[in-house]
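WARN no homologs supplied; continuing
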Amino acid sequence: MKYIIILTILVSGLLLFTGFIVEEDKAEIAFSKELKSIESEVYTFQVNNKTVQTSDSEFQLSVEPFIKDQELYISVFDLVDLINRSIYYDDHIIVKAKNKEFSFDRDTKFIRPSDIFKMLNYSENKSGDQITFSKNDDVSFNKIEKHDLPTIKESGIKTKTQDGNNKLVVITSRGEKSTGGYSTEITQVTTLPYDDKTLLVIAKTEDPDDDKILPQVITYPQDQIIIDSKYQDYNFKLIAI
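OK structure emitted
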């Protein structure tokens, strides 16, 4: 019995040291090594290979990446170690990366890095067993009021040249809604590293709460920006978040 107790204490201490057990009075996980957040333009993963190629270095994962349902999965702790400086436990796993927070179920062990990299403005490219995430370049834009712009009754994205000032109007619409409380807001426009003729337009959307009393009126939520007219021949892809 004495030896069992000693062994239990040693194993518990080892797990705590390696970051798999959290002390009850500490919210932040303790890792066995210092976290080094890599700010890389490119991350290349190889299936069944622990080495991740970054722009100018290599990073060693603790667990080999694998494919499930045609999607790449890696350990949540490896992702934290790769791109992030802090991870917290409460009812969920909360990962903080570049002023953004990502929440997962507490029992999560493996995640799709594509979900995180997309939020951090990276594009994904697959080539055989190799998956690469590349940083997109932001396109500058200015918000404009609707004023004389047309109401877009179909959901999606429209563009319109603006006469006389070399600008292109980009409009995102959620289509016809039967009540108020719906919205869309363009937050980012980026180029795609693997497609030099496509712009990615990212728009934040909000829906009304189910139990909220709303005016019964037809609305057409939309948002509009202006960008340089040099993009007028580009394809536009809308991503709602």
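Residues 2-37 have pLDDT under 50 and may be disordered.
OK
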